[in-house]
Amino acid sequence: MRYRLIFLISFFLLVINKSNAQQLKTQIDSTKPQTIWQMAKYDTRYTLKSVGHAFTRPLHWKGNDFAKLGILLGGTAALTFTDEPIQEFIQNQRRDFPKVVRDFGWYFGSPQNYFMANAGLYGFGLFTKNEKIRKTSVLIISSSLTTGLIQTFTKNAIGRARPSRNAGHLEFSSFANESSFRSFPSGHTVLSITMAHSIAKQFENPWVKAGIYTVGAIPPISRLVDDAHWFTDIAFSTVLSIIVVDSIDNFLFDDKAYDYPKKEKVISWNLRFSTNQIGLVGTF
Fold it and tell me: What are the Phosphatidic acid phosphatase type 2/haloperoxidase domain coordinates in residue numbering (predicted)?
C-alpha cells in the first residue's frame, strides 16, 4: 500500500510538471536562487515565513474575520446533532466498504507516509529546478506544519472521545493521556485535505481538480468507516485545512516568492450558516 501511495504522488507531480512546463518563464531571473543549495535555503526560509504568517494573521483580523470564525465554531457545534445518526448509518454500511480503500485512507493520512511523499515531491522539484513543484511542496509543508500544530494542541486540549469508545459524542476529557480521547479534530483529514487542496490549486481543469479532491476525501471517509472520528471532527478539519492553505498561498503570491502564472479568477471560499444552511461555499 505504501508503494501505491508513492506511485500516486509521483503521478501527480509528473502531471504538474508536464501541464505547466510551457507556462513557466524561460528567462532566468537573476534575483532568484539558481543552485540547488540556494534554492533549498530559499524554500526553507519561505516555509518558516509562511508558518509565521499563518500564526500571526489573527493579529490583523477585522470584524468580518472574527465573524467567519464564529460561523465555523457555531456551525461545528450545530452539526454535532448529526454526529450519532451519521455514525450509525456509516457503521451499518461498513461491511460493504472496500478494505483496500480503507487501507489507502489510513496510509495516505498517516504522518510518516505523508511527509515521505512530500519529501519526494519536493526533491523532484528541487533537482529538476521546477519552481512550480517547489512552490507546491512549500505550500503543502508549511500548511501541514500550521494545521498540524493547531490540531495537536486542540486534540489534547479538547479531549473528545472517539466513537469507538462507545461513550457518546459529547464526552470530553481535556489533556487525557489516552488516544481514545483525541477525536477532535482529525489529523488524517487535516493532512489529506491540505495536500489535496494544495495540489488541486495548481490546475485549471475542473475534472483534474475533482479527481484530486476525490483522492483527498478517501482518508476522512475511511476514518469515519473505521469509527475513529465523528462527522464534525472531519468537517472542522476540512474547513481548517482549506483556510490555512488559501491563507499561505495568498501570502506566497503577494510576496512574489515564486514566479509562475496564476489565474486571476479563483474560487472564493466562504462559510455560510443560517437556519437552513451550514457549509463551505465556493464561488467561481
Answer: 140-244
Residue 158 CB burial class (10 angstroms; 0-12, 13-18, ≥19): middle
Give the domain CATH number at 236.
1.20.144
How many independent structural domains does the chain possess?
A: 1
Question: Quick check: is 67 in a domain?
Answer: no
> What is the CA angle 127-129-133, rounded to 5?
95
Burial class for 206, CB neighbours closer than 10 Å (0-12, 13-18, 19+):
exposed
Q: Looking at the domain assignment, is residue 213 inside a domain?
A: yes
Give the number of other CB atoms < 10 A from CB of residue 282.
11
Band the pLDDT of 110: cuts 50, 70, 90: confident
- Report CA-CA distances (Å) from 193 to 17, 180, 184, 235: 21, 23, 16, 11
User: What is the rounded average pLDDT of the residues 40-44?
Assistant: 92
Comparing CA positions, the residue from 18, 115, 46 lying closest to residue 259 is 46
What confidence score (pLDDT) does residue 140 get? 94
Contact 245, 201 (CB under 8 A): yes
H/E run at residue 19: helix 2-20
DSSP string, 192-261: HHHHHHHHHTT---HHHHHHHHHHHHHHHHHHHHTT-S-HHHHHHHHHHHHHHHHHHHHHHHHTT-S---
pLDDT computed for residue 271 by the predictor: 52
The string of pLDDT tens digits covering residues 170-216 is: 888 888 878 888 889 998 899 999 999 999 998 888 899 999 999 99
